[in-house]
Amino acid sequence: MQSSATFNSISREEYTKTYSNIQFLEQAKEEFEDKWRRNPTNTASLDDFERTKTLGTGFFGRKVVKLKQVEHTLNGKRILQAIQFPFLVSLRYHFKGNSSLYMVLEYISGGEIFPHLSKVGRFSELHSRFYAAQIILAFEYLLYLDLTHRDLKPENMLIDSRGYLKVTDFGLANHVTGRTWTICSFSEYLAPEIILSKGYNKAVDWRDLGVLVYEMAAGYPPFFADQPIQLYEKQVDLTKRYGKLKAGVNEVEAPSIPRCKGPGDTSNFDDYKEEALRISSTEKWAKKLIIL
């Protein structure tokens, strides 16, 4: 009895890209862990800067002490000082005053994506893909470092002077190696497992990306309501979610169905001149079955 084998081929270019990417992530993880362990305190002082203009305040910044989220703020600072990636905002300096924590971030002159999206109503598919691709790379980097952002939304995405994206606001970011139960994130972006307090892992960032892509392409989020409780009910409702219904994935219908007269119908293929098969006993692989 002859055995068969399955061979998977990969080009030199694909091999180089794949393993170069892994090497980059491994090196990035080493650099992150080193900075995470060192966790430097003051890298500058308030006297080193000149105040020119207030660019924004932010709910989280104003309510941090009132909501007792100091630990989240310090954790976000620690994460920011340890990461470095083209599509993530960079922390340049950080220091403490008598009553404040100062974090000096790189200046991104294009501002938030949110007002740009509001102005045009919705982005084109090409425009949405352009931003989504950059977020995917950023999340690939973060998740490889066991970091989860947990607060992706248009307000937390900045555009630089060249039109490229920077994810910002790490106030809810966390270093997660297993599951966590912290309730956070923007209400329209909350994953069902967060709402139901079932515990979640880094996968919630990918779910947030899906919601964001929908909002960029449609101009509004997939879930919205006047009251938070109504919004949460829609987000956890499984009765209308494809793949979760009684018929499972069979609920998902194909967008178009080809015309077929039967199982052996070949009318959807071009016609070719039929040629007789040549079988020679001198051919190397004659009469042998090779599965590639």
From TrEMBL:
- Output the Gene Ontology cellular-component terms: cAMP-dependent protein kinase complex; cytosol; nucleus
Task: Tell me the GO molecular function terms.
Answer: ATP binding; cAMP-dependent protein kinase activity
Q: Which UniProt keywords apply?
A: ATP-binding, Kinase, Nucleotide-binding, Serine/threonine-protein kinase, Transferase
Q: Which Gene3D superfamilies match?
A: Phosphorylase Kinase, domain 1, Transferase(Phosphotransferase) domain 1
What InterPro entries does its record include?
A: Kinase-like_dom_sf, Prot_kinase_dom, Ser/Thr_kinase_AS
| Protein kinase domain segment(s) | 49-292
Superkingdom per UniProt: Eukaryota
Q: What is this protein called?
A: (Mediterranean fruit fly) hypothetical protein
Q: List the source organism.
A: Ceratitis capitata (Mediterranean fruit fly)
